[in-house]
Structure formats: structure tokens, C-alpha cells
């Protein structure tokens, strides 16, 4: 049964493959919708691009949360629980699908959908590297075309019916969650639960980066968020040091230093990481930079062995005895 009038949206045709139960659910801002999807090309073979059932995990979106492929909200609003429908969508609705599919494929194999510590957005990275990392998505990116989505609506939960993780929050809720996650991370760090602390810090950073992506770079609101993110990233690095992930510490602190060369703690933590991997010259250079930035707080003894001292307490020891 073709039912394009039900949607009332240009460039969409709907075919119900299996009827659902009861009335169409109430979809409000904050509703969490769980569904399976299959994406196909509009060719003779109906080539399948993605299929959540093959992955074994259904898709979840929160309505009103600015999901990149907003046409899915439009499609789901026409469905009943248990319904399976096929939607033909013109290219006016499918242009961003390659970017969305890249994120979904990374999640499916246990990777982060984005590299959170990189300071450029996903779109900028795409143009920088000229590829999404998947040949079929690259081809679709170069030549956008209509797509077919087969959706099966499994569940609709109202905001009060589920625990809202940070990805499901709006910007105001994310901003309120940041100090809570920061405090939880600090508590876990003091308890020696470093891996759990990193998860809290990372979730807080993701909240900030999501909000920051909507601000104009280097203007006051953006810089305020950047300072918050850097503080959390350095806490994250302190955990990594305790977990002996020294090269990752060097990577993250270098990102901060390249953008903000006056952040003393970034040099200090990078110096510690360099020392642990026996990069003596790099470590000494970082510790000297710490002294330049805050000479009243630090003392540095350059003899062998070398020491960095804070208020009489030896903080770092030694290079080559």
C-alpha cells in the first residue's frame, strides 16, 4: 500500500509491509525511539548499504535532538509499534546519509563515531582526507541519489520512562551534566578507579564538544567551552598516566599545547609522559616551559639526576643516573 499523503512531505513515498498495533504513538521532544533499519540503493538489485538486523543492534534516536538525518523522525512519526514499512526518499532528504552511515558503522564495530580529541569537526575531516573510509559511502557522497529505507518500529519511550544518557540530552541538559560528570570523575580518580574516571571525563568532554560545535570558533562562548574541555582533557590525561598510556598522554597534551601554548599543566603532564618513555630532551624542555610559565611555584634542578620541585616536594625524578 503506497501512502505518500499520510506523510504530507515532498519526496517521500511509503509502502506498509506489515501493519502495526493500536494507534500511532505519541512522539514528543525527548521521546526515545528504538527501531531496526535497512538502507538500499534505488537500483535494479536494491543493493543493501546498511542493515541493523545484520549488526544485531537496533537503532535509537531521541526526537528533537538534532539527529543529522532528520528525515528518519519524519518517517517514524507515521508508524505504529510493530509496523514494518518501506520508504522511498528523494535526494533532498538523503544528502547527509553517507556521514551518518559512517558513524553508525564505526559504532557497530566498537569504535567511537568521532575522534573526540581532534579539534576539527567531522565535515572538515572529510574534506581533509577526501574519503569517508568506505568505498560505497564515498561514491554516494560524490553522486547523491534517492534511497530506500525499510524501518521496523520497536519501541517509543517518553522522557520520563528512561535514563537519559548524555547523547540523548539537549544542550542545556548537557551543560548541566558537565560539572556532575567532572565531579564523579574526580571522585573515581581519588579512589584509584582510573578507567572508570576516564569514562566520566570523556563523556563530559563529548557534551562540551557537541555544544561547542554550534558556536563560532574563537569567539567568547566557544573559548569558554574550550577552557572547560581542556581542563577535563588534562584530568583524563592524569588517569592515562596512572594507566601507563604515555603516548596517548603526549598526543592529547600536544593537541592542547598546539592550540593554547600557555597551558602550564599540559606541559607538565606531557613532560611526565616523555620522561616515562625516556624522551629526556623533550621532557626537560617541557619542564623548563613549566618553570617559564609559573616561576614562583616551581623549581628545576638540571643536574643529573634532574628534579622538578613544587614547594619543597619532589614532583619528578630523574634522568640518567
UniProtKB/TrEMBL annotation:
<dbReference type="InterPro" id="IPR019734">
    <property type="entry name" value="TPR_rpt"/>
</dbReference>
<keyword id="KW-0963">Cytoplasm</keyword>
<keyword id="KW-0677">Repeat</keyword>
<dbReference type="Pfam" id="PF23322">
    <property type="entry name" value="PPIase_AIP"/>
</dbReference>
<keyword id="KW-0802">TPR repeat</keyword>
<feature type="domain" description="AIP/AIPL N-terminal FKBP-type PPIase">
    <location>
        <begin position="29"/>
        <end position="155"/>
    </location>
</feature>
<dbReference type="InterPro" id="IPR039663">
    <property type="entry name" value="AIP/AIPL1/TTC9"/>
</dbReference>
<dbReference type="InterPro" id="IPR046357">
    <property type="entry name" value="PPIase_dom_sf"/>
</dbReference>
<protein>
    <recommendedName>
        <fullName>Aryl-hydrocarbon-interacting protein-like 1</fullName>
    </recommendedName>
</protein>
<dbReference type="InterPro" id="IPR011990">
    <property type="entry name" value="TPR-like_helical_dom_sf"/>
</dbReference>
<comment type="function">
    <text>May be important in protein trafficking and/or protein folding and stabilization.</text>
</comment>
<keyword id="KW-0539">Nucleus</keyword>
<dbReference type="GO" id="GO:0003755">
    <property type="term" value="F:peptidyl-prolyl cis-trans isomerase activity"/>
</dbReference>
<dbReference type="GO" id="GO:0005634">
    <property type="term" value="C:nucleus"/>
</dbReference>
<dbReference type="GO" id="GO:0005737">
    <property type="term" value="C:cytoplasm"/>
</dbReference>
<dbReference type="InterPro" id="IPR056277">
    <property type="entry name" value="PPIase_AIP"/>
</dbReference>
<feature type="repeat" description="TPR">
    <location>
        <begin position="264"/>
        <end position="297"/>
    </location>
</feature>
